[in-house]
UniProtKB/TrEMBL annotation:
Residues 118-133 have a biased composition (Basic residues). Residues 113-133 are annotated as: Disordered. It comes from the Eukaryota. This is Large ribosomal subunit protein uL4 C-terminal domain-containing protein. Residues 1-64 form the Large ribosomal subunit protein uL4 C-terminal domain. It comes from Pipistrellus kuhlii (Kuhl's pipistrelle).
Length: 150
């Protein structure tokens, strides 16, 4: 190496021919979206998903309507009372009908009013065992026929 001028050596055509061309395109990472939550991304993957979703919504609405008609028929057959007039009676009727349909005559209390088990009942303390239980030694009990004097 005769010349110590490094910048001139690096810029020389012989040096530049041996090097790779600089990469000018910068690739940015794009956040991947979840197709199960994002409809537009799902449609890119599966165009039939839109039709499937519409059919599902229509089917659910039809099933809901059928269920409500059936429940109304059951309630109408069951009730001998006069029709509901006031707001309070309407609310009671709705509660009664909901209770009998979904919870089998038992309405569940809200989460904050339910009885909770105490922390001790939830996770009872474990009994600590000594390391001697692993040895399984036979230790005779004290009795009259196990004496050393005889």
């Amino acid at each position: 190496m005769l010349s110590t001028d490094l910048s001139r050596i690096w810029k020389s055509p012989e040096f530049q021919r041996a090097l790779h061309a600089p990469c000018e395109k910068i690739h940015h990472r794009v956040l991947r979206k979840n197709p199960l939550k994002n409809l537009r991304i799902m449609l890119n993957l599966n165009p039939y998903a839109k039709t499937m979703r519409q059919n599902t919504i229509l089917r659910q609405a039809k099933n809901h309507r059928l269920r409500m008609d059936k429940a109304a028929a059951v309630l109408e057959a069951k009730s001998d009372e006069k029709p509901v007039v006031g707001r309070k009676e309407r609310r009671l009727w709705a509660l009664r009908s909901r209770r009998s349909l979904w919870w089998g005559e038992r309405l569940q209390l809200p989460r904050n009013q339910q009885l909770r088990r105490s922390p001790q009942k939830r996770n009872p303390p474990q009994r600590k065992r000594s390391p001697w239980h692993k040895l399984k030694l036979f230790i005779p009990e004290r009795s009259s026929h196990f004496t050393l004097d005889s």
